[in-house]
Write a structure and sequence with these properties.
Number of domains: 1
Distance between the termini: 6 Å
Shape: globular
Radius of gyration: 12 Å
Number of helices: 1
Largest sheet: 5 strands, antiparallel
Helix content: 10-25%
Order of helices and strands: HEEEEE
Structural class: alpha+beta
Number of strands: 5
């Protein structure tokens, strides 16, 4: 889905990256698996790209992902400002 086709949403106060937040909200609400997320920082300092993740919590300035292919990894907290790029599912 092209980013221009995302439905409009009401943003909670404190949301700073409304474009990216809208995309994250869409995939959170649909429970979709995101193929890859590139980040500057995560709880796992050796992992700067997250593969096959699903959003389990979406805050105003953070996202908590679970890695679908490696359930033993646990939950991964990423600040929205640290997300560099997302490889969106088609």
């Amino acid at each position: 889905m092209h980013i221009d086709n995302f439905p409009p949403v009401a943003f909670p106060s404190g949301v700073s990256s409304t474009g990216l937040w809208t995309v994250l909200l869409y995939y959170y609400q649909n429970g979709a698996i995101i193929p890859e997320v590139y980040v500057r920082n995560t709880q796992q300092t050796t992992t700067l790209d997250l593969v096959a993740v699903r959003i389990v919590t979406l805050g105003t300035d953070f996202v908590i992902f679970e890695q679908v292919t490696s359930p033993g990894v646990g939950l991964i907290l990423v600040m929205i400002e640290d997300i560099i790029a997302i490889d969106l599912p088609s």
